[in-house]
Design brief:
The complex is a heterodimer of chains A (125) and B (556). By secondary structure, chain A is α/β, with parallel strands linked by helices. Chain A has 5 helices and 5 strands. Chain A has a 5-stranded parallel beta sheet with strand order 2-1-3-4-5. The mean pLDDT of chain A is 90. Chain B is of the alpha+beta class and 556 residues long. Chain B contains 12 helices and 12 strands. In chain B, the strands form 3 sheets. Chain B has a 5-stranded antiparallel beta sheet with strand order 2-1-5-4-3, with helices on both faces. In chain B, strands 7-9-10-12-11 form a 5-stranded mixed beta sheet. The longest helix of chain B has 74 residues. Classes of the chains: A alpha/beta (125), B alpha+beta (556).
Chain lengths: 125, 556
């Protein structure tokens, strides 16, 4: 079965760039543009990994993250946070758990592949 | 018993004597009353006695003239007359004494003596009358005329002497009253001068107090005093409040500061009371409407007898400066965030491009796409930098405007053609509705183009679907341009604020919040007006810009 990655990012160009970066991995990619839309989709299906931007319209990434962690089905979903904010600011904003990794924009393709790969691995555990 | 001729004579003489005595008595009593009355002090007791005395004398005379008179009765009436006369004089003397005490003058030494003497005289008179009465009835007409004359002369002499003494005492009293009156008049004048001086000083005090009050009340700053317990004792006014000023007096000064600054206020007040050293602090207050308002507060000691009794504070509203500082901080944060995102895109695009180039069979379509993405991000960085530079130039007053005839219709067509592809890429339609004939406006073509570009940029940013329509119309005096979108819309409370520098409705908004402030500055520099209408969140927004049309001769 194909592994699935959900990308939550409001910037169309960044969505495109991430898709380019993940090209060739064989992972199925689903693109979401805000927190509300993503949370609704997550109620229908849970991906293997989530790439999450922090500053979003409607529902921010931080709010979505906490909402997910409150729901048993999504509490263990591995998350890769991508943001222009510093890691420090993201941590004070979100208080992440050990099922979460952080990448600051811009990042290398390799870093994204490793982080999502790590997330997939955790999902397999 | 029938009286003879001698008897008749002596009886007639006696009657005359009686009359004379009565009239003398009345005159003396009258004078007394006048003296007492002039000092406004007529004792009722004296009046009553006088009445009674008149009655008794009348009765005695009528008894005397009657055919028969019992000895005992005559004696009793005579005694009563004597006693009453004596007490009348004593009462009068006492009344006079009281009057003099009231006037602040000591009793003339002669006056009580004279009164006493007069009393005694009346007693003697009464005794004589008694004796005459008894003698007459016992011995018939044996009263010798000489004796009567003698008695009469003696009585008159004594009466005159008493009268003279009384008059002297009275004159003395008058002069004392006159002297005292003069003294009082003198004191009165001095008092009047003193009162006038006091009134003048009071007026001066009122004037200076009024000057001070209007100075404090019209001061742009909040001025007040606080006591040792931290309570407000005085405040010149309460900004923007419907609450009466008095309700604040006695309230805890610190309680007006925002909760996280209350301790600061208390500590500062305590320090000023202890050290007497003036300090200035920046404090956030909660306004009546619940907003956070910044004040710079200068605390200074009010000394009294070497001790700080109250603290004077002068609070200046520094909200504008503080908010601008915050806006600048936000700007730095926003600019770095705003530049970091396109730079991240450039960085990541170039990395991917490098990887593609390294392949044996490069995916040229993907490479083209990535290079386009990188280039548009570079443009975005440049635009942001340009905006910031423009704003700083605008604020420094370094913008100059050309004044040439500009056809807005053509300008709209040009801009729409230029920007339509970018909108299309986002799934948006950019449409222009411009009438064939539109008056020209006088202005700076590049700057007006900038307004249109910024407005369309803004509409594209906040739309995900639908059409963005640029329309123009005229009433011959002005050209009215609208940019309508079907995007996110604007909350009613932000309709004015979107034109403020650095304002962003949401933190995730793109850009640094400068584009619309630049539009406003340009439109207003052309003598026009700009505003936005929106039904609310999700219902789109329409920006309106009205520019004055060029006069006829220039339009041709």
């Amino acid at each position: 079965m194909t592994a699935r990655v959900m990308i939550v990012e409001d910037d169309v160009e960044l969505q495109e760039l991430y898709t380019h970066m993940l090209d060739g991995t064989g992972w199925e990619i689903e693109q979401m543009y805000d927190g509300t839309q993503a949370l609704a989709r997550l109620q229908e299906t849970v991906p293997d990994a989530l790439i999450l931007d922090v500053v979003l319209d409607e529902m921010g990434g931080d709010v979505l993250y906490h909402e997910m962690r409150r729901q048993p089905r999504l509490a263990d979903l591995p998350v890769v946070i991508v943001s222009v904010l510093s890691a420090e600011r993201c941590h004070t904003l979100m208080q992440v758990d050990d099922k979460t990794r952080f990448l600051r924009k811009p990042f290398h393709r390799q870093a994204l592949l490793e982080a999502v790969g790590w997330a997939m691995g955790r999902g397999d555990e | 018993m029938k009286p003879g001729a001698e008897e008749l004579i002596s009886r007639g003489m006696l009657e005359r004597l009686m009359e004379e005595m009565a009239s003398r008595r009345d005159a003396i009593v009258e004078e007394w009353f006048e003296a007492v009355g002039r000092t406004c002090f007529v004792p009722l007791a004296a009046c009553a006695l006088r009445e009674r005395l008149g009655g008794l004398l009348d009765r005695f005379v009528s008894l005397w003239l009657a055919e028969s008179i019992p000895d005992e009765e005559a004696q009793r009436v005579a005694e009563e007359i004597g006693a009453d006369l004596a007490s009348l004089h004593l009462v009068n003397a006492e009344a006079l004494g009281q009057t003099l005490r009231i006037l602040g003058t000591s009793l003339p030494c002669d006056l009580p003596g004279a009164a006493h003497d007069l009393g005694k005289l009346h007693l003697r008179q009464a005794n004589l009358l008694q004796r005459l009465a008894i003698g007459y009835y016992r011995q018939g007409c044996t009263i010798v005329l000489d004796e009567q004359e003698q008695i009469r002369s003696a009585l008159l002499v004594e009466l005159q002497a008493a009268d003279a003494r009384l008059r002297a005492a009275h004159d003395d009293l008058e002069s004392r009253v006159a002297q005292r009156t003069a003294e009082l008049a003198q004191i009165n004048t001095e008092l009047r001068n003193e009162v006038a001086e006091r009134l003048r000083v009071e007026q001066e005090l009122r004037d200076s107090k009024e000057r001070w009050r209007s100075l404090v009340e019209n001061a742009p700053d909040l001025i007040g005093t606080v006591d040792r317990q931290g309570r407000i004792r005085f405040l010149n006014r309460l900004p923007g409040s419907a609450v009466p000023l008095e309700s604040v007096i006695g309230a805890d000064a610190a309680s007006f500061a925002q909760w996280d600054y209350q301790e600061d206020v208390r500590r500062t007040l305590h320090d000023v009371f202890e050290t007497g050293v003036r300090v200035t602090r920046e404090i956030a207050f909660t306004s009546v409407t619940g907003n956070r308002v910044w004040y710079a507060i200068s605390y200074g000691p009010i000394w009294q007898d070497g001790e700080v009794v109250e603290v004077l504070f002068v609070s200046r509203n520094i909200d504008r400066r503080k908010k601008l500082e915050q806006a600048k901080d936000n700007l730095i944060h926003d600019v770095s965030h705003e530049l970091r995102t396109p730079l991240a895109k450039i960085r990541m695009s170039l990395e991917l491009l490098g990887e593609i180039a390294a392949r044996d069979e490069p995916d040229m379509e993907r490479a083209r796409r990535l290079s386009h993405l990188a280039l548009s991000s570079v443009d975005s960085v440049l635009d942001t930098l340009e905006d910031i530079l423009d704003l700083s130039r605008l604020e420094a007053g370094m913008w100059s405007y050309e004044a040439e005839p500009v056809g807005l219709g053509a300008l709209i067509d040009l801009v729409v053609a230029d920007m339509a592809p970018a909108a299309q890429e986002k799934g948006l339609v950019l449409a222009a509705e411009v009438p064939a004939a539109l008056p020209l406006v006088v202005g700076d073509r590049d700057k007006l183009q900038r307004v249109l570009v910024n407005l369309i940029d803004n509409a594209v940013k906040f739309s995900r679907k639908g059409t963005i329509t640029l329309a123009a119309g005229t009433d011959d005096r002005a050209v009215h341009v609208t940019v309508a979108d079907e995007g996110e819309g604007i909350l009613p409370e932000n309709r004015e604020r979107v034109f403020e520098r650095f304002f962003q409705e949401k933190k995730s908004s793109h850009g640094v919040g400068i584009g619309l402030s630049i539009c406003k500055a340009i439109v207003e520099a052309h003598g026009g007006k700009i505003w936005v209408e929106s039904e609310g969140r999700g219902l789109g927004a329409t920006f309106h810009a009205v520019l004055p049309a060029a006069p006829e001769e220039e339009a041709t």
